[in-house]
Amino acid sequence: MPFRERHIKHFTTLASIKKPRIFTAVAIILVVTITATIAFLTMTPWVQTTSGPGIVTTLDPNDRQQEINALVSGRIERWYVRDGARVKKGDPILKVADNDPQLLERLDAEQQQLLEQRNAAASALATARIDLERTQRLFEDGLAARRDYEQATIRVEGLRADLAAAEAALTRQQVDISRQSLQLIRAPRDGTILRLNAGDVATTISAGSAVATFQPDGAKRAVELFIDGRDVALVKPGDDVRLLFEGWPAVQFSGWPSVAVGTFEARVLTIDPTAQPNGQFRVLVTEVDNPEVPWPDQRFIRYGATVRGWILLETVPLGFELWRQLNNFPPEFTGEASSDGFAPQ
């Protein structure tokens, strides 16, 4: 008889107590659960990510929201558009009238005077050249003095300078008239007038004043993401990104992007070398070529809309990721070559 059973018989109460089956079941369940949990944390892959907020923008700065400026000073005479109006290239937006209503008439009259001066100078120069040629022939034949020939030459040069001055004055006058003809401001390309910045008719504006805010059509969208400086060293051009657009229904699993629903593919294009004033770094991402699910149409995702992005990094075991998150460590770094071709030491 075993030693334990031989001595338990002396304690009748202890011998009468039987071990409950539920304890055995609970012990088995705990052992199985702990084993399964360890196996799950060790063998389950998890894609590390670095995330940050962002906004929808454009790649080409010419496609971004821009101001339309007045080219001449004057007062607003007529608006041809309103807020939210769609315009084609060359469509009139605003007509500006000069503060002097008779300025164009005065400029036209001044131009006529300058034209007459130019024509008179040209005629005088032509006559002086004929006289110079005649004096030169007489001088060569010995019938005219050298002084007369030199004076004729000087007179031709002086009249040539007068003609050049008259043509310069006429050119300046034509520039003034051309500037005044720019009083009708037109749309630079197809797009939308977002808002009108100037006042009502009879409002005085100066040259260079912003009169309207304009958004061109046909821009290629991109997204500006802002990520923490702790993770920016692990991001490189070409990394895959998952985007969650504002107002778009989605279920996101950052560690398992393959099972996420409602997110869209993107790719890192560039990373700013310097931080923003808040210490975050800007990462510019674009849509991939031939994506499985293209980005939503522009009428759903407009410029300036808020975005949440996850840049996909290394794949590690789930247990390691939990340990990293609890200790607030940066993501795993494999030591691969950086984008400039050099591997960290």
Automatic annotation (TrEMBL):
Q: Which Gene3D superfamilies match?
A: 2.40.50.100, Helix hairpin bin
- Output one GO MF annotation: transmembrane transporter activity
- Membrane-spanning segments: 21-43
Q: Which residues form a coiled coil?
A: 149-176
GO cellular component terms, A-Z? membrane
- What keywords tag this UniProt record? Coiled coil, Membrane, Transmembrane, Transmembrane helix
NCBIfam families to which the protein is assigned, alphabetical: RND_mfp
Q: What does the sequence similarity comment in the record state about its family?
A: Belongs to the membrane fusion protein (MFP) (TC 8.A.1) family.
Specify the protein name: Efflux RND transporter periplasmic adaptor subunit
- Organism, by scientific name, is Parvularcula mediterranea
Phylogenetic placement of the source organism:
Bacteria, Pseudomonadati, Pseudomonadota, Alphaproteobacteria, Parvularculales
